[in-house]
Design a protein that fits this description.
Blueprint (H helix, E strand, L loop, with lengths): L9 E7 L5 H12 L4 E3 L8 E8 L6 H5 L3 E9 L1 E3 L8 E4 L7 H9 L3 E5 L8 E2 L2 E2 H6 L9 E14 L2 E8 L5 H12 L3 E11 L2 E2 L4 E2 H6 L2 H6 L4 H4 L6
Parallel strand pairs: 1-14, 3-12
Antiparallel strand pairs: 1-3, 2-3, 4-11, 4-12, 5-6, 7-10, 8-9, 10-11, 12-13
Length: 241
């Protein structure tokens, strides 16, 4: 790989496309920018779209500060079908009839998840136990004990309900598995559920409206991309490199 004539430093906000891993986005940017020092601050599942905070050059040193930001999402849940991954990418494990539910009943069930709580990471996740990612064990049909993690749900708003679909807006702390919330909501409503769509709209003060799509980035020149970078001292004012 050939290094660019000028090493880029800063934060680039990317609107991740669906069917791409966060690593796929980083790999494409490494190729476009011809530099190795590219990372991100907070993984999105392949199915999910939206805000991915990409770090270039020296900005990779502040990943821990940006990963810790609160997150905002919009998404959809499908009632009546549970999957092994808790989202639409998984295999359907159980199908159950959806009871007659009112918007008020669904909203009340969602409100029960508000506040501080512990959440157990799903088996299909990148969490490592004994140095092995859980998803590798899950693919072998293994189920292992996981340590619950502290999370906080600040708001979970019901945007629309047309059974079996729920549209929502969520604000939560880092490390929250939205698909696990969907799965647990389905259990609470007595019919099972999975996350059918997810879009990260915000992370801290950063919003997806500020982000560039991969198509836009790949059509830009390096100087044009550099002009869109957020300097590290602006992205994380409390940190000096």
């Amino acid at each position: 790989m050939i290094a660019p004539s000028k090493e880029l430093d800063g934060v680039l906000l990317v609107d991740k496309p669906g069917a791409h891993t966060s690593h796929d986005v980083v790999a494409r940017l490494r190729g476009k920018l011809r530099m190795r020092k590219v990372g991100h601050a907070g993984t999105l599942d392949p199915m999910a779209t939206g805000l991915l905070i990409v770090l270039l050059g020296r900005a990779t040193r502040v990943s821990q500060f940006l990963i810790s930001l609160d997150k905002e999402y919009e998404g959809s849940i499908e009632l009546g079908r549970s999957t092994d991954t808790q989202d639409a990418d998984g295999q359907v494990m159980e199908t159950r009839p959806v009871p007659e539910l009112t918007r008020e009943q669904v909203g009340a069930a969602m409100q029960a998840f508000m506040g501080d709580q512990y959440q157990t990471p799903p088996m299909f996740s990148a969490v490592k136990i004994g140095g092995v990612p859980l998803y590798k064990r899950a693919r072998k049909g293994e189920e292992v004990e996981r340590e619950p993690r502290f999370i906080r749900i600040m708001s979970w708003e019901l945007l629309a309900f047309a059974s079996p679909r729920i549209d929502f807006r969520l604000r939560c702390t880092k490390g929250t598995y939205v698909r696990t919330l969907a799965h647990e909501l389905g259990a609470r409503l007595g019919c099972g559920a999975h996350l059918s769509a997810l879009r990260r709209t915000g992370s801290g003060r950063f919003n997806v409206a500020q982000a560039l799509t991969m198509e836009q980035i790949e059509a830009m020149t390096i100087p044009e991309i550099e002009a869109r970078l957020i300097p590290v001292h602006q992205a994380v004012p409390s940190v000096a490199l």
